[in-house]
């Protein structure tokens, strides 16, 4: 799933590509992706792209006062086309294409979603706050006003909830998903199951530094990359997420996994849990 650093890079890349262009046409290949009806999608046709920005993990293409807001969900992505096909795509539940944005010079953008679980969402709104997911977002962790005191207040409010869940809950902190929550906790040397409200002042400082550094470094590495390069860049720099069974790059211990119904987390026992494997909730036994 694209998270804050990748969506930030996508916004930067698209801002350069779309700036000064008009939207000529938008084709919908997956009707389930479009979540709004007023304004209609056709209202974007003929509008001039003014900006491309990010709200958490939402991408916002602003055009003549309207906003096309996209949430790529777990398997969504974007593919730039220097020249789009002249024949409009046919709606199909089997196609990976969800939306096609055609610009005034016949270049364009394909918004795709792999797999059968269709969760990608597109909204046409007058104000980004009209999108429920944006209206309920927590603070952005890379803004200047996201201070250590603000993080302290968040964690104290969450009390006994596990750090992993607190970090990735979009209504608590915006933009952090499954991958970067694993990476932040590994950098902070903290268990994903540690209670959020039980951190000492020293632990809070460590977590805050790990959060800002992990996300900030990922944004810096991604800046300037094309969409086609972002997935590879992210994967090549992960320390524990998606690396079950491989050695931890810090201590050499084997990266372990805890599986849930529809997701999993990865961690290093030596770095994060005092050498003790965590209980795998799905398998109901200790990982070995």
TrEMBL record:
Which reaction is catalysed here?
Answer: Hydrolysis of DNA containing ring-opened 7-methylguanine residues, releasing 2,6-diamino-4-hydroxy-5-(N-methyl)formamidopyrimidine
Is Repeat set as a keyword in this record? no
Q: Which GO terms describe its molecular function?
A: 8-oxo-7,8-dihydroguanine DNA N-glycosylase activity; class I DNA-(apurinic or apyrimidinic site) endonuclease activity; damaged DNA binding; zinc ion binding
Q: What is its EC number?
A: 3.2.2.23, 4.2.99.18
Residues in a coiled coil are: none
Co-factor requirement: Zn(2+)
Report any one BP term from Gene Ontology: base-excision repair
Please report the stretch or stretches of sequence annotated as the Formamidopyrimidine-DNA glycosylase catalytic domain.
2-120
Keyword field contains Transport: no
Q: Which domain of life is it from?
A: Bacteria
Which UniProt key words apply to this protein? Answer: DNA damage, DNA repair, DNA-binding, Glycosidase, Hydrolase, Lyase, Metal-binding, Multifunctional enzyme, Zinc, Zinc-finger
Q: Report domain FPG-type positions.
A: 239-273
Task: Quote the Pfam families the UniProt record gives.
Answer: Fapy_DNA_glyco (PF01149), H2TH (PF06831), zf-FPG_IleRS (PF06827)
Q: Which family does it belong to?
A: Belongs to the FPG family.
User: What is this protein's record name?
Assistant: Formamidopyrimidine-DNA glycosylase
What species is given as this protein's source?
Answer: Nocardioides soli
């Amino acid at each position: 799933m694209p998270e804050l650093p990748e969506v930030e890079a996508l916004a930067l890349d698209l801002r350069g590509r779309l700036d000064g262009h008009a939207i000529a046409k938008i084709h919908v290949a997956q009707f389930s992706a479009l979540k709004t009806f007023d304004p209609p999608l056709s209202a974007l046709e003929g509008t001039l792209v003014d900006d491309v920005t990010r709200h958490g993990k939402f991408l916002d293409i602003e055009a003549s006062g309207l906003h096309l807001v996209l949430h790529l969900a777990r398997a969504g992505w974007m593919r730039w086309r220097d020249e789009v096909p002249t024949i409009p795509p046919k709606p199909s539940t089997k196609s990976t294409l969800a939306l096609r944005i055609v610009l005034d010079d016949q270049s364009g953008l394909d918004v795709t979603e792999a797999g059968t679980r269709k969760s990608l969402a597109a909204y046409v709104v007058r104000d980004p706050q009209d999108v429920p997911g944006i209206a309920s977002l927590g603070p952005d962790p890379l803004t200047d006003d996201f201070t250590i005191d603000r993080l302290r207040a968040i964690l104290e409010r969450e009390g006994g909830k596990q750090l992993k869940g607190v970090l990735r809950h979009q209504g608590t902190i915006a933009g952090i998903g499954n991958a970067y929550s694993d990476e932040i906790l590994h950098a902070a040397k903290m268990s994903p199951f540690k209670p959020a409200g039980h951190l000492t002042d020293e632990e809070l400082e460590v977590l805050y530094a790990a959060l800002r550094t992990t996300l900030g470094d990922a944004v810096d590495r991604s800046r300037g990359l094309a969409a086609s390069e972002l997935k590879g860049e992210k994967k090549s720099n992960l320390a524990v997420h998606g690396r079950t069974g491989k050695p931890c790059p810090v201590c050499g211990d084997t990266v372990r996994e805890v599986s849930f119904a529809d997701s999993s987390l990865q961690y290093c026992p030596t770095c994060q849990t005092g050498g003790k494997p965590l209980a795998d909730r799905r398998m109901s036994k200790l990982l070995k």
